[in-house]
Write a structure and sequence with these properties.
The complex is a heterodimer.
Chain A (H helix, E strand, L loop, with lengths): L1 E8 L1 E2 L11 E2 L5 H18 L4 E9 L7 H14 L1 E12 L6 H10 L3 E7 L3 H7 L5 H14 L4 E7 L6 H13 L4 E6 L7 H7 L8 H16 L4 E4 L2 E3 L6 H7 L4 E4 L4 E4 L2 E5 L3 H5 L3 H4 E5 L2 H12 L6 E2 H8 L3 H4 L1 H9 L3 E3 L3 E4 L1 H5 L1 H7 L2
Parallel strand pairs in A: 1-4, 1-11, 2-3, 4-5, 5-6, 6-7, 7-8
Antiparallel strand pairs in A: 8-10, 9-10, 12-13, 13-14, 15-17, 16-17
Chain B lengths: L6 E8 L5 H11 L17 H6 L6 E7 L2 E7 L7 H9 L3 E7 L6 H12 L3 E7 L8 H12 L7 E2 L8 H11 L12 E10 L3 E10 L1 E3 L3 E4 L5 E3 L2 E5 L3 E4 L1 E3 L3 E5 L13 E4 L18 E7 L5 H13 L5 E7 L3 E8 L2 H15 L3 E3 L6 E5 L4 E4 L11 E16 L3 H10 L3 E9 L2 E9 H15 L5 E12 L1 E8 L2 E2 L5 E4 L3 H15 L7 E7 L2 E8 L15 H16 L2 E3 L2 E3 L1 H5 L6
Parallel strand pairs in B: 1-3, 1-4, 4-5, 5-6
Antiparallel strand pairs in B: 2-3, 7-8, 7-16, 8-15, 9-14, 10-11, 10-16, 12-13, 12-15, 17-19, 17-20, 18-19, 21-22, 21-23, 23-25, 23-26, 24-25, 27-28, 27-29, 27-30, 30-31, 32-33
Helix pairs in contact in B: 7-8, 9-10
The chains are: A alpha/beta, B alpha+beta.
Chain lengths: 373, 594
Amino acid sequence: MSSSLYIHVPFCKRKCNYCDFTSYAGKEDLIQEYLESLRSESGYISSLYDKPKIRTVFIGGGTPTLLSEENIKYLFDTISADFEILPGAEVTVEANPGTVTRDKLKTLLSCGANRISLGAQVFNNKLLKKLGRIHMEHEIIDSYNMIKETGFKNVNLDLIFALPGENMKDWRETLEKAIELKPEHISTYNLQIEEGTVFFEEKLEGHLSLPNEDVELEMYTMAIELLRSNDYDQYEISNFAKAGFECEHNKTYWKMLDYIGLGAGAHSYIDGTRIENTSDLNKYLTKNFSEIKKEHKNSKKENMQEFLFLGLRLLDGFSLGDFTNRFGISFREIYRKETEELVSDGLLEINNKNVKLTQKGLYIANEVFKAFL
Amino acid sequence: MTDISKIRNFSIIAHIDHGKSTLADRLLEETHTIDKRQMRAQVLDTMDLERERGITIKSQAIRMLYKDFILDLIDTPGHVDFTYEVSRALAACEGAILIIDASQGAEAQTLANAHLAIANKLKIIPVVNKIDLPNAEPKRAVEEFEHLFGFSEDEIILASAKEGTGIKDILEAIVARVPQPTGNMNEPLQALIFDSKYDPYRGVVVYVRVVNGSIRKDSKIRMMGTGAEFEVQEVGILKIDYIPKDELTAGEVGYVIANIKNVRESRVGDTITESKNPAKEPLPGYKPSKPMVFCGFFPTTAEKYPELKDAIEKLQLNDASLFYEPESSAALGLGFRCGFLGLLHLEIIQERLEREYGLDIIATAPSVVYKVNRTNKTSEFIDSPIKLPHPSEIASIEEPYLKITIFCPQKYVGAVLEICQDKRGVFKNMEYLDPTRVMLTYEMPLGEVITDFHDMLKSSTKGYASMDYELIGYRESDLVRLDVLLNQEPVDALSVIVHRDKAYYKGKAYAEKLKEVIPRHQFEIPVQAAIGSKVIARETIPAMRKNVLQKCYGGDVTRKRKLLEKQKAGKKRMKRIGRVDVPQEAFMAVLKIK
């Protein structure tokens, strides 16, 4: 089999105010133990699937660049021992300003990483502080330059918009500053307030002034226009790339191909089964995999639904032929009623080959996705 | 046969939260009716809802033994909606403990309940409760007892049910002051029904006070009000469980099981007699309960109609005052028009349908019963705005009026007067209870009281005002129907009847409120308020502009699915009218207009 590989590093210097990912602050002393646990999970998966071939690797977090050079080498040794990384594989590592050093970057490069995704978030010191980030605006630029100088030819910048207190001018500045750095790839995420975060509490107490739906949309459309006019092609709801630099790893998710997730809170999709690892760090460290992993074998219906709401995130949508090959039934046949309504509402476009969102459909994609659930 | 001279039947009456249930708990403990191990707070409130809301909805009774006396405590519902039930429970007693909270003083229901007790010729034992509280002013409460009811200071017992102070004094007072029942064992049977409840295994259990004669197993009985006849299967007394006995005799409180299928056949206030030797007259005071407030219940999806029907039927088994009949709305489809004793009763039923039967229902705004006098000289009662005839056929409309009594601190009088004025109240009287508190009397349309009157009263007096009311009859008012159009389509279920003077203002505020509570759709939705064919207000719900999940959490598709499913479930709880999904709040929006 060939698959993608995701590795989760759940450590951070501090937890950001919007973050509800699996990440722990102040637990750096557990990093080595965690990497050992990862190694046994990796070995377990490797023998289970007979040393899988890997097309893309993504090391995400948390903050993978919190790892020391020793840690990094240890982690890559694990990967190369247990998996067959295919030639030309995209190998991404997430990095956060304030934790990036030249030596770490050199180590990453020599270990085989060829893409860095930098968590810039916003080019505005006041907003960075509001988000609870550990870095300032100039550190984003310093980190970015270091990455390029080390020799990375494929860099992504993560940006977030619709932040508390952010206005159109702020967001435009962030976009312009990001574009000025000329990264190969830019992701723009609309801030969502998730339960269990600092922002969630502040919102409950009424202390968070967020842009309204109309401003959010304006921010989103401005991003699309500004990025397009600078040769960033929007290929997914939140993702933009220069020609030839689309993120292969993320496309794995949207095309619903197989991926293996290792580490606390990581997710896998293997052969129609979704697997979720515990996000409890201590539980993960026990290496008791029957306890750590929760499996759900998707029904055919679930697979179809997910294929649709993932595939439609891509601007090209999905191909009718792929749907038929995959499920042995025609999309038009089973979703006739839903499709007719969505097309007549101007949310969905369908031709002989493909089904995709319209521009309007892009803005209210959830309404389309829900129709198929 | 039980020695009638050793029986004391009594009730505890109080304003809500003055400590009725806690005092009942202490009496049960002190008389060892319940041991400490079984004790949980508010033993007599059995329904979850009762515990949560801290109120008694159904009456309960329990027998205690104290020295060589039998004390039958009849607990009464604690809300103005259930005034008739309270009055029947009191009619089954000879005495009542009247509680005043030492920190609050007398409140509107203190007075209303005391008047009911006096009307039933009960011996009243005044108790000042919660004297342990730091802000307690027992002296003021004592003065109020003296001033309002003419008690002398030495009659008044100071107590703290929470700490157990004064409990012995209360028990002694019950024995010494409450008279023994006056019934005659040898007369034909007369037993007063003061409550009944449906038990799925035993059928209806009827709670009675035997006034004359006796009732025993196997005897044939007749309900004098409804004429229904039954054969008694079991009689007994009420402890924590049912304790069967051979017979209940004059003066006793107990239960009767007689293969009764529905509580409507054993109505509160009715008299049970023996078929072969019936009493000449029923006991006084029976009147079938009459619903005051109506609303429609509709399933959110049509296929749930049979489930809703089933659930309402089941609830009615245990609630004779719940009225229902099928209703058909052009906008909401098939449902039920239900009648209630009051707003609380309505809320309880709605909550039970949702909670106990897991139904998603749409309740329409509560309405009162209007009397419509037609131009052709006929008149009729209508319980729904939908049923209002065409304006050209209406000569006049009458609506129910209440006499409403409000107790509040003197410094809030201005605010209260303003609210009452705004709710079309007619000022009748103002009386000082003491230098700092007043009692206001108003006459007001019931239709105004069932909106947000009580909430407004509470919020404008920092929670200090209390109120009570009674129906005083119908009066003519200049009323019109306000209709709502959503997306150009009239929605009958959103129609309301309002006073003509306020129609424009209300129409505008109603449209604004609807705009607030109806979520954005993929298209723009005009909201219009109209009187007849004349549109008087228009708002527009803008089209939804953005709803898209952004981040793909490292392949966590399950989470994305859950988010979408949650959004979709939210939509399911709404009612689709035409192409518009309307949430429950929209149907209550008219009540939230300031």
